[in-house]
Design goal:
Largest sheet: 4 strands, antiparallel
Strand order of the largest sheet: 4-5-3-8
Strand content: 15-25%
Shape: flat
Structural class: alpha+beta
Oligomer: single chain
Number of strands: 8
Radius of gyration: 26 Å
């Protein structure tokens, strides 16, 4: 019978060696499956299950990275804070299932409104955030208006009834030394400035 000598001077047969090699390959395959599973779970932890966009947790991580790039390179960047108008009325009249469909529709419209390099995320409830890299305040407001016009110009129909969709958008510029919460709060406050004044178009640049 052929035998091999292991590192610890134990003698093993070729048959035993083949079994060990097979076990090693099995363990490697199992590790690969576990790593893939961990990767999938990590992705789910950063993804909103309804609209299939990054969630608030992922958004904050990306915002932190963007702040770092602004500090390093000095280029302009901004955040859009998007608040959906009238979602409660849709939920009350048609139910939360239709309200969820409206959120999915708006999420798709937001993605279609911005550049492929921009990050669109659901912050929670009826709020979304958009990160704009290489965009100053003026360019960010132009993008905000584009978002508003895209949403308002869309059609969302339920059982033959077309429901109007609209959003209010605020801009928060990103500066060196900012914290993610500071930027989000800045954009949120601008959104309320846009939303509150009577007679001012939703998404208009505040004066």
């Amino acid at each position: 019978m052929s035998r091999l000598v292991a590192n610890d001077d134990r003698v093993v047969s070729l048959a035993e060696a083949e079994v060990l090699v097979g076990e090693i390959e099995r363990l490697r395959a199992e590790i690969g499956r576990l790593e893939a599973r961990v990767g999938h779970l990590d992705e789910l932890a950063h993804l909103d299950p309804l609209v299939h966009l990054p969630n608030r947790r992922c958004f904050i991580t990306r915002l932190q990275r963007l702040i770092g790039r602004v500090e390093q390179d000095g280029h302009a960047a901004a955040m859009l804070f998007v608040d959906v108008d009238g979602l409660k009325a849709i939920n009350d009249r048609f139910g939360h299932k239709i309200g969820d469909q409206a959120l999915v529709e708006i999420a798709q419209l937001l993605v279609a409104s911005v550049r492929g390099t921009d990050c669109v995320a659901r912050m929670g409830g009826d709020e979304f955030g958009i990160l704009l890299e290489h965009a100053d305040e003026s360019q960010a407001w132009q993008m905000a208006l584009r978002v508003v016009e895209t949403v308002v110009g869309s059609q969302f129909c339920v059982d033959g009834i077309c429901l109007p969709l609209s959003v209010a958008v605020g801009v928060g510029t990103i500066g060196s030394g900012d914290k993610p919460e500071t930027v989000i709060d800045r954009a949120d406050k601008q959104m309320y400035r846009v939303k509150t004044p009577k007679g001012q178009p939703i998404g208009a640049v505040p004066t």
